[in-house]
Design a protein that fits this description.
Blueprint lengths: L8 E4 L5 H12 L3 E6 L2 H13 L3 E6 L5 H15 L4 E4 L16 H28 L3 E6 L13 H21 L4 E8 L5 H4 L5 H9 L9 H12 L10 E4 L9
Helix pairs in contact: 1-8, 3-4, 4-5
């Protein structure tokens, strides 16, 4: 069976752990050469080593996704080492200042969440799109969330606002670049067993409460969300653009 991303070059941000790490590993197994990005160099190097041990190709670049020079450097690395960019998963994110109502939220905390979750995606797209167009098109993916789209949680306004805004960015770019064979989609995971989720679901009763929100009554494994990212990255989704793809275990429709 042919590999789904054979000959493709992918950039994955937020690849140090969780969904980003699982997706980078899966992309590599499916034939892509992968540039993995994040803040933790040691974790990225470990991922590159694992990919190489399985016969894949990857390179790591550590930095801050809120800086435009880092977004440019990722594209430069992909181009210099692997020849260009075909796929990008802009996945880096922060939960922001949870448990704080808007009147009590510091402006700096709002700005920090906006920069990490939304501005980084804009900067990524700004540099990834021209590189993809040079290759005749590609697949641009943003990791959004059901939070702010189908479900509202109290005291999560910055996170919800940024994740909802990513869907608007997705739709605008999909409309702008569809005629040039560049597809743009948002991936909306449900609760996933990642270090980020464990920051607020850190005890058995808290985990059970989050699991109970979902129709499937469990959290996703990062590898399950990675499979949805693979769908959007590959030709399996060749007629899919401008979508907000829910991979949320039914949390958006569950009332039980």
């Amino acid at each position: 069976m042919a590999l789904l991303l054979s000959g493709k070059v992918a950039i994955v941000t937020g690849a140090s752990s969780g969904i980003g790490r699982a997706t980078a590993a899966l992309f590599a197994r499916e034939g892509a050469s992968v540039v993995v990005a994040g803040r933790r160099r040691a974790a990225l190097d470990a991922l590159v080593s694992e990919i190489a041990e399985r016969g894949g190709r990857a390179t790591a670049l550590a930095g801050d996704v809120t800086h435009e020079d880092f977004a440019a450097a990722l594209v430069e690395r992909a181009t210099s080492e692997f020849g260009g960019v075909d796929v990008a998963l802009n996945n880096a994110a922060t939960l922001g200042d949870l448990g704080v109502s808007v009147p009590d939220l510091e402006r700096s905390k709002w700005d920090e969440t906006l920069a990490t979750n939304l501005t980084s995606a804009f900067l990524g797209a700004k540099h990834q799109i021209p590189a993809m167009l040079k290759r005749g098109g590609g697949s641009l993916i943003f990791t959004s969330s059901f939070v702010g789209h189908t479900v509202g949680f109290p005291q999560m306004a910055p996170y919800a606002a940024t994740k909802a805004a990513l869907i608007g960015l997705t739709q605008a770019l999909a409309a702008e670049y569809g005629s040039r064979n560049l597809r743009v989609n948002a991936l909306l995971p449900g609760g996933t067993d990642t270090p980020m989720t464990r920051t607020f679901a850190d005890k058995p009763d808290a985990v059970a409460a989050v699991e109970g929100l979902h129709a499937l009554k469990r959290l996703a494994a990062p590898e399950e969300i990675a499979k949805s990212a693979l769908y959007l990255a590959s030709d399996l989704s060749s007629f899919t653009t401008g979508t907000a793809l829910l991979a949320d275990g039914g949390v958006s429709i569950n009332r039980t």
